[in-house]
Amino acid sequence: MVMERSGQDRRSTVGIWVGNLPGPLALFNRFSITRYLLASIVSLAFDVALFMVLVAFATDPGWSSAAGYSAGIIVHWLISSSFVFPGKTRQGAALQLQRIGFIGTAVLGLGITVSIVSWLTEMGVVPVLAKGAAVFVSFFVVYLTRKFGVFR
User: Fold this and answer.
1) Per-domain residue ranges for the chain?
2) Where is coiled-coil annotated (predicted)?
């Protein structure tokens, strides 16, 4: 089934598909926070998978969280620019500034993540629980800075 996009519809093809889901599932496309949540879940899967592999190989939890978060950043840009904030991606030089802003918010989230994971694991918290706490805090901080800054 080919979906046509009108000139007014700024959604990506994936956004249109999600918007056409039945009933409550279509709500995932209605609000940017729900689209951002979906993007974050996919990105988090990449993040946590790499984190767990590195921790299993006795890599420092702080560095493991940095590597996992970095992998998630790349995945998140691809999803955010086409699905979460459709029609908000800039062109030309403005696109480069937007990417720099996105990377800046990623560095903010990375700093939050590494700090919380390192601090909590030093206090004896299991690395996975420390990572969970870091994910919760960084999710909201980064979402708000991207929504009202990068993709305004």
Assistant:
1) 13-150
2) none
